[in-house]
Specification:
The chain is of the alpha/beta class and about 400 residues long. It folds into 2 domains: about 35-150 and about 290-360, Response regulator (Rossmann fold, 3-Layer(aba) Sandwich), CATH 3.40.50.2300; about 155-280 and about 375-400, Rossmann fold (3-Layer(aba) Sandwich), CATH 3.40.50.2300. It contains 14 helices and 14 strands. It has helices spanning about 5-25, 50-70, 90-100, 115-125, 140, 155-170, 180-195, 215-220, 220-225, 235-245, 265-270, 295-310, 315-335, 340-350; strands spanning about 35-40, 75-85, 105-110, 130-135, 150, 175-180, 200-210, 230-235, 255-260, 280, 355, 360, 375-380, 385-390. Strands 7-6-8-9-10-13-14 form a 7-stranded mixed beta sheet, covered by helices on one side. Strand 4, helix 5 and strand 5 (about 150) form a beta-alpha-beta unit. The longest helix is centred in the last third of the chain and has 22 residues, at about 315-335. The protein is globular.
């Protein structure tokens, strides 16, 4: 005799079964030549669209490069791209759509931690590997998420920047202006802490809302505080405004440095002569690559130019690198005779060791890259010249170009 269920118990059983049908992601054996689906989420519209589109092009190029070689272990790759509109809630919805309806093997992309963070949480819940293209906030990897990896890390920017300020520029008094985003805020705090350890003071530290249209009041505070070097933790559009206002009056500065938005040819072209002497940082740019990867870098630049009729930049390379990591991990699983489940691909990512133009890519136990490192560049005669570290320098600092 079958036990009789009460009406509440029957409803509970029905709901549990319904949820299992809706949210379970059964892994079916991959058939010969069956396509592999990758899901990409980037800000393709909204205030972050410029860099989101650059990341997208890097990812797209990596996928098309893989398909031109015959796919991944004989399987063609399909890229499903989604626009998060520069909004965290949209990013979550797009992640869910790619996971449940798109049935993707893994996720890639992402620009700024306010967008990357929510996607990483969805990836963890559904056990889908996610390789973020641009992410810095330490909190995202403090509690180990075995399905989350990224190709950039904050220390790779902060350490060389602070050493350059104290060792090369001999700066003692620094001002920091940064966007009120999680990654930029943490960047400012880490810069202040590192400079203190190196004997320099952060005498002015302020934040602004992304999209802020006028920095003139902040700039007026620099001379009374005797700021020698100004660090911007803003993004491309913020730095366009900031630099133009910086040139309107003498401020007594030795240097203006921005990790994001200055080391771009598009920035130089838009700002023109006002860009001369400014400092930026980058992990890669055409002609600025890891020793030993020059040939691979040149091949990437030539192929990218042919496809998109434009120059790639450091953001493009972050997208390309993240896609290369995910594709390589899937290939490792398939060549070993396994199925590309979320767990299997994530375990392969943890063991990855790739030599790419931007970096040697290996992940630590938290999913952070172990070799990510920026160089310091100065704009000289409308070109990016590497001035730090000394072993990678292509020129010397031109102190005559200081903003004053």
């Amino acid at each position: 005799m079958q036990p009789h269920l009460s009406r509440p118990a029957a409803w509970a059983c029905f709901i549990a079964c319904l949820l299992a049908v809706l949210f379970c992601r059964p892994v079916l054996p991959l058939r010969a030549a069956q396509e592999i689906r990758l899901g990409e989420i980037d800000p393709l519209s909204g205030n972050l669209a410029k860099h989101g589109l650059e990341i997208h092009q890097g990812i797209l190029y990596a996928v098309e490069e893989a398909n031109a070689r015959g796919g991944v272990a004989g399987h063609p790759v399909e890229l499903l791209s989604r626009d998060d509109q520069s909004k965290p809630d949209v990013a979550v919805n797009q992640a869910q759509d790619l996971i449940f309806r798109g049935k993707v093997t893994g996720l890639v992309g992402g620009y700024v931690d306010a967008l990357v963070g929510p996607i990483s949480q969805q990836a963890a819940r559904q056990r889908v590997p996610y390789v973020a293209s641009a992410s810095l906030q330490q909190a995202l990897t403090e509690n180990k998420n075995p399905y989350f990896f990224r190709v950039s890390r904050l220390e790779g920017i902060v350490q060389p920047l602070c050493r350059f300020l104290t060792q090369t520029l001999k700066t003692q008094r620094v001002g920091v202006l940064h966007a009120a985003s999680p990654g930029a805020t943490e960047f400012a705090d880490r810069v202040r802490a590192n400079l203190r350890q190196m004997g320099a003071d952060t005498v002015l530290l302020e934040k602004f809302r992304p999209g802020w249209p006028d920095f003139s009041v902040f700039l007026l505070k620099l001379p009374p505080a005797r700021v020698e070097a100004l660090i911007s933790g803003g993004f491309y559009a913020d730095n366009l405004i900031l630099v133009r206002q910086l040139r309107e009056r003498p401020l007594g500065l030795k240097a203006f440095i921005a990790p994001w938005g200055v080391a771009y040819q598009s920035f130089i072209d838009e700002v023109g002569q006002a860009s001369e002497g400014l400092f930026g940082t980058c992990a890669w740019n055409p002609g600025i690559t890891q020793p030993g990867t020059e040939s691979a870098s040149q091949s990437f630049v030539a192929g990218f130019r042919q496809k998109f009729h434009k120059e790639p930049n450091t953001t493009t390379m972050h997208g390309y690198t993240s896609a290369q990591a995910l594709l390589a991990a899937i290939e490792m699983v398939l060549k070993a005779g396994g199925q590309p489940t979320g767990e299997a691909v994530s375990q392969a990512l943890a063991k990855l060791d790739l030599q790419l133009p931007m970096e040697r890519l290996t992940f630590d136990k938290h999913g952070d890259p172990q070799h990510y490192q920026h160089v310091i560049v100065q704009i000289q005669k409308q070109r990016l010249v590497v001035v730090y570290p000394p072993e990678r320098a292509t020129g010397q600092v031109d102190f005559s170009l200081a903003p004053r």
